[in-house]
Amino acid sequence: MADKKVALITGAGQGIGKAIAERLNRDGFAVALLGRHLDKVQAVADELNQAGGDAFAVQADVADQQAVFDAVAKVKDHYGDFNVMINNAGVAPSDPIESVTPEQLDYAYKINVGGVIWGTQAAVKAFKELNHGGKIINGSSQAGQEGNPNLTVYGSTKFAIRGITQTTSKELAPDHITVNAYCPGIVKTPMMEDIAKNVAKEAGKSEEWGMEQFAKNISLKRLSDPSDVANLVSFLASDDSNYITGQSILVDGGMVYR
Ligand SMILES: NC(=O)C1=CN([C@@H]2O[C@H](COP(=O)(O)OP(=O)(O)OC[C@H]3O[C@@H](n4cnc5c(N)ncnc54)[C@H](O)[C@@H]3O)[C@@H](O)[C@H]2O)C=CC1
Ligand SMILES: CC(=O)C(C)=O
């Protein structure tokens, strides 16, 4: 049994997932980094290990149920324990409603919604085998709390993740498993840059204009760094959040008020 708690973060090769891995490693967790491309998550794990941390890279596509189960089992075997599952990986098609295709719908739902469901199932199996509870933390979005133009498909997956978070929190409470979600705002990552580019292209404007469309209603008047999101996930992964379950918490600098 590991002397540290073990957290697995999906989509940990860049952006918010990478920031979460760095933060939890600093918090004293052993971190498993899951990504579609092993070289990318391995590079982040190497960085963390060279800095004295404890990181382990695993390859899986979160849309593939068996691959996710295999990855979680591998992490459990590697560390001898498993405590926190962070279903962070996601993709963000950003097109007007009239351009949505069946392929796009299928792709986004299999990764964003399927990935959370398979990640939850695999984590529950591992927690039960280890005879203890655990924490499941899901990546939703402010776009899962409020409709955003051009994000019908993406936003609907993020609304679904809030629903899954509520439902599974009730189902899994008797097993001492909590389930919560984080809802970031406009975070400076490759995903957000792509969205801003697409929306700007559609309108025949610059990428800066695209980002401004999303950023103009932030009360704190700055875009989010991935570390802002990692700060919330650090709390949700810690014992300080033990009495919180079923919640989807906004970390958006004041965009959406609930
Ligand atoms: N950047 C933003 O402004 C916001 C992001 N989010 C959510 O936060 C999460 C992380 O977003 P970012 O870091 O911005 O995105 P990103 O695109 O920069 O990074 C996502 C990572 O997930 C990986 N990934 C994608 N599909 C995968 C799959 N099928 N299997 C395994 N790995 C996969 C990608 O390869 C990439 O490394 C996503 O769920 C996103 O929807 C939520 C609100 C705002
Ligand atoms: C990418 C995302 O989740 C936004 C714009 O809220």
From TrEMBL:
Belongs to the short-chain dehydrogenases/reductases (SDR) family. It comes from Nicoliella lavandulae. Keywords: NAD, Oxidoreductase. It is an enzyme of class 1 (oxidoreductase). It catalyses: (S)-acetoin + NAD(+) = diacetyl + NADH + H(+). Gene3D superfamilies: NAD(P)-binding Rossmann-like Domain (3.40.50.720). InterPro entries: 23BDH (IPR014007), NAD(P)-bd_dom_sf (IPR036291), Sc_DH/Rdtase_CS (IPR020904), SDR (IPR050259), SDR_fam (IPR002347). This is diacetyl reductase [(S)-acetoin forming]. Its EC number is 1.1.1.304.
